[in-house]
Amino acid sequence: MRVFGVDRRGFALALLISGGLSGAAMALEPGDAAAGAKVFKKCVACHTTEAGGKSGIGPNMHGLFGRTAGTMEGFNFSDAMKAAGAGGRVWNDETLAEYIRNPRVAIPKNKMAFVGVKKDADLANLIAYLKEATK
C-alpha cells in the first residue's frame, strides 16, 4: 500500500522521524538560574558573560539572546557557525537548547569541542542562567 507516494513502511518511518524531530524541538520547562550558574561552570573555561568581557576560546556570551549566530564582532567563528547565521539562525531558547544539547549535530563542523548538556533539567537551568547573566 502506498500513502502520499511512499510505501507503507516508508510512510511509517517518515512519521517516526518527524515525531522524533518535533520532540527535539519541544520547549523545555522553565529553569532555575541559580542551578544554571552551577551548570555554567562547565563553560567558564571558554566563555564569559559580562558586558565588555573578553572572548576566550569561545565568544563572550553577553547579548547572546537575539543575536544572529556567528556575528559577534571581534570573535573568529567557524565557517559553519557563520553559515548558520547567514542561514537565519538567531539565538533564542529553542535554538540555544538545540545547540547546547549537541553542538556537533546542531551545527556540524563548528569549532566548539564541548560534547553538550544532555539532561533537560540542566539545559533548562543553564538557559535560565544565561538569560539573566548575558543581558
Per-chain topology:
Elements: E1 2-3, E2 6-7, H1 8-24, H2 33-40, H3 79-86, H4 93-101, H5 103-106, H6 120-133
Antiparallel strand pairs: 1-2
Structure description:
- There is one protein chain.
- The protein is mostly helical.
- It contains 6 helices and 2 strands.
- The protein has a two-stranded antiparallel sheet.
- Helix 2 crosses helix 6.
- It is globular, with a radius of gyration of 17 Å.
Query: Can you summarize the main beta sheet?
Result: 2 strands, antiparallel
Between the first and last Cα atoms, what is the distance in angstroms? Answer: 55 Å
Give the helix proportion (percent range).
40-55%
The residue ranges in which pLDDT falls below 50 over 5 or more consecutive positions are 1-25
On the 0-100 scale, what is the average pLDDT? 86
Write the H/E string, N to C. Answer: EEHHHHHH
Count of helices? 6
Oligomer: single chain
Keywords, separated by commas or semicolons:
135 residues, two-stranded antiparallel ribbon, 6 helices, 44% helix, globular
